[in-house]
Specification:
Blueprint: H1 12-33, H2 40-60, H3 63-68, H4 70-82, E1 100-102, E2 105-107, H5 109-127, H6 135-153, H7 158-174, H8 179-186, H9 199-219, H10 223-250, H11 253-263, H12 274-286, H13 297-300, H14 312-344, H15 349-373, H16 391-412, H17 424-428
Antiparallel strand pairs: 1-2
């Protein structure tokens, strides 16, 4: 269960990157809440301290043991999501039943579901390398990611549910899924062009679909795979084209308002557009050097809402300026590149897929959150990894890095360079001399 021979096998570089990001987040939250009667930085520090033993445990555990028990771990994650629907156990917070109260603390099961889904996908895809000829080969791993996403969407928590799509697709692609299959899965998303109602949008959709059909024919994809996805793409497009206005009228008001704000940054600045407007003010007022820790007026005087959660980046940018934001993004980039290197150097497909899933998870959070607070993406309500306040979120984020460290440690124990993966094709078809060890 535990496999470590020397402290030199530990990936201290990834740990230092994680600690640097945690330090930036703690500093920005401390600067904004230090003068409060009940400063949140103390609670944030407690969450970090609580997460440290879990981080060490996950780092030292043989990840292949977790792969072996992945089905039970995944079921436990789904059970945790179902607890959110038990009356009296999951109080409504900000319009969603996403937190479960246990032992006097609020726990967010959807955060644990991210890692349990990654482990289950790594096991499932690792057991079926290169098998993509049937529709079930595509639908089964998709279902592993869709099930928790649907349960989270019912809470409702659109931001967290969105994460499961990119993570699932990236892991399937790295496991050897052909590009044609990936394009087929994404093809129904082109239905959004049907809402534009212009000849240019129609011609663009026709061109994309015609090109995809040619690609499918050229690659000789099994008809049982491409027919359902193309049929869904056609139905979705013409459904949006014909009934788009009625669908828009029945859509939730908060979703429509967020899209309006995204399309028009000046829309309702004292209402739904207030958050993103104040976020831009905070980022801009920080300038190059920042105002200094504890001197961010936007957060301290509560002009910037949710500065410790979804809008943690503007809070950091106001206090530490462009330099602080650049350092944060640089640390994120190094951590992601380190994770990619860990995935490439893994000794087996399961380890590579775990590292891939964690990297995709981190990247999705960073991309959506930073894009959201800068106005490049619609507001979805997704925290920033290691920077935002949240006990369960910090625990799962640190556990993700622990998984990266565990995969890298055990890859270092393999001396034969021929046993390592060198690219996606090899990951799809493992080498014959790859060592087969028992769990």
């Amino acid at each position: 269960m535990f496999r470590i021979k020397s402290l030199f096998e530990i990936d201290f570089f990834s740990i230092l990157l994680m600690l640097g990001l945690i330090g930036l987040g703690l500093a920005s939250i401390t600067g904004a809440t230090f003068a409060d009667s009940s400063p949140k930085w103390i609670n944030h520090l407690e969450s970090i301290v609580i997460a440290i033993p879990v981080f060490i445990f996950v780092m030292l555990v043989d990840y292949r043991w977790m792969i072996k028990w992945a089905p039970l771990i995944y079921i436990a994650g789904i059970a945790g999501l179902l607890l959110c629907f038990v009356p009296g156990l999951a109080p409504e917070v900000k319009g969603a039943h996403s937190w479960v109260r246990l032992a006097g603390r609020q726990i967010q099961p959807s955060e644990f579901a991210k890692l349990t889904t990654i482990l289950m996908l790594a096991r499932w895809l690792g057991m079926r390398p290169g098998q993509w000829n049937r529709l079930t080969d595509v639908l089964q791993p998709l279902a592993i990611g869709v099930i928790p996403a649907v349960l989270i969407l019912k809470q409702p928590d659109l931001g967290t549910a969105t994460v499961f799509g990119p993570v699932t697709l990236v892991m399937m692609f790295v496991a050897g899924m052909p590009v044609t299959h990936l394009l087929l899965i994404l093809s129904p998303a082109l239905c959004l062009l049907g809402a534009i109602h212009t000849i240019e949008a129609l011609l663009l959709w026709i061109s994309c679909m015609f090109g995809l059909i040619l690609l499918v024919v050229w690659r000789r994809v099994n008809w049982t795979v491409w027919l359902p996805f193309l049929a869904l793409a056609f139905i979705a497009f013409f459904g949006i084209y014909q009934y788009g206005e009625k669908i828009w009228e029945k859509a939730p008001n908060h979703a429509k308002e967020r899209i309006n704000v995204y399309l028009d940054p000046e829309y309702d600045l004292r209402g739904v557009g207030y958050n993103i407007y104040q976020a831009k003010i905070a980022l801009g007022s920080g300038g190059f050097h920042g105002k200094g820790l504890g001197k961010g007026a936007q957060a301290q005087y509560e002009f910037l809402p949710e500065f410790e959660h979804d809008f943690a980046f503007p809070n950091l940018g106001e206090q530490l300026g462009f330099i602080g934001g650049a350092v944060m993004l640089g640390l994120f980039l190094l951590l992601i590149l380190r994770g990619v290197d860990t995935a490439i150097g893994s000794v087996n497909m399961e380890g590579s897929l775990i590292a891939t899933g964690v990297v995709a998870l981190f990247f999705t959070h960073i991309f959506i959150n930073v894009g959201m607070v800068t106005g490049l993406l619609p507001v979805t309500g997704l925290p920033l990894t290691f920077i935002s306040f949240g006990g369960t979120f910090m625990l799962t984020s640190m556990s993700g890095v622990a998984l990266l460290v565990a995969v890298r440690m055990q890859s270092r124990q393999v001396q034969d360079p021929e046993a390592r993966f060198t690219g996606r094709p090899q990951m799809a078809l493992p080498s014959a001399n790859q060592p087969q060890e028992d769990f």
